[in-house]
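Each field is set out as follows.
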Amino acid sequence: MKTFDIDGVICMGNWAGVRPGPGDVIITGRSYEEADETNAFLHSNGITNQVYYNPVKFEDKSRESSGEHKAVIISRLITDGQEVLCHFEDDEVQAQIIERKTGLPVVLLKHNLVNKENVRRDPDGNEI
């Protein structure tokens, strides 16, 4: 399986980006508080993969805490016997944390299409 971030990977601003395949997992830095609009965006794009949300409140999350969250979930998947091949990420800060904590290869997508800081999004993936 492969793991995917949402913002900057699956959602690239106003359009869909890299799509996870069957059996792949989405690990987002988005807070659990953002689940409704995130699920609406994913489903409107035909994406039904399992999603792991950041367990912190929206206002408390950071790029670093999001990277830590993703590393914890990836480590847990590996410990549970899942074969995780790589993680798709667009945030250099988070990619470094994931690689350092898990040893997993990170496919880093470099672009300026989305804000890397903490922003709210509507069900279409647009910043609000």
The chain has three helices and seven strands.
